[in-house]
Design brief:
The protein is an alpha/beta fold and 218 residues long. 32% of the residues lie in helices and 17% in strands. It has a single domain (5-204), classed as Alpha/Beta hydrolase fold, catalytic domain (Rossmann fold, 3-Layer(aba) Sandwich).
Length: 218
């Protein structure tokens, strides 16, 4: 499947200096409540946000029952979308929820994007911490922000502390958040607080990545 511009959903200003492209997770579409909240929250700050669906999810909308595509197809979808949007803004950021962010992290360096945003990165399958999905992250050269709940069953704070990750990866921990950033009532925190913190972190990361690096003259 080749993705065209008409299949994308946009939020934010038509003209913006930065675009953030988000892909969905394995089980929910691009217009899930999580994706809607993040896209609209980031777009409200003046950043243009684009969302797209992988081939299998688009097929599900047509009534076909299909499992997630294999990695080559998922990567190909990302390549198509970046090709469509590369000239639309000065800076292009890619990422997404869980699997969407994971695949983005696998193509970010090769596609030469400005930055990477992973929301609930699936560091390992649920209940299988020994099956890590981190090998490529040790050498990642693209500036990256990973937003993660501290009790994410696919990568908690304790799990991630033992991984060898690239120094280009910044992790923003959301206290008591699960894989979708939702905290327990007993924590005293709300889901809205977590989502607001996630959006704030994304916007700050994009703004920081756009600032020119100052060269020391000492």
């Amino acid at each position: 499947m080749v993705i065209d511009r008409s299949s994308l959903v946009f939020d934010g200003p038509t003209r913006a200096s930065s675009i953030l492209v988000l892909a969905h997770g394995a089980g929910a579409p691009m217009d899930s409540p999580f994706m809607e909240t993040v896209a609209r929250g980031v777009a409200a700050t003046g950043i243009r946000v684009a969302r797209f669906e992988f081939s299998y999810m688009a097929a599900r909308r047509r009534g076909e029952r299909r499992p997630p595509d294999r990695e080559p197809e998922l990567r190909s979808c990302w390549e198509d979308v970046v090709g469509l949007l590369r000239g639309d803004a000065e800076a292009l950021f890619i990422g997404g929820k869980s699997m969407g962010g994971r695949i983005a992290s696998m193509v970010a360096d090769a596609l030469g994007v400005t930055g990477l945003v992973c929301l609930g990165y699936p560091f390992h399958p649920p209940g299988k911490p020994e099956q890590t999905r981190t090998a490529h992250l040790a050498e990642l050269a693209t500036p990256a922000l990973f937003v993660q709940g501290t009790r994410d069953t696919l990568g908690s704070r304790e799990d991630v502390a033992g991984y060898a990750l690239s120094p280009h990866i910044e992790i923003r921990w959301l206290e008591d958040g699960d894989h979708s950033f939702k905290p327990r009532k007993s924590s005293g925190r709300t889901e809205q607080q977590s989502m607001d913190e996630a959006i704030e972190a994304i916007v700050a990361f994009i703004e920081a990545a756009r600032r020119p690096t100052r060269v020391s003259r000492n």
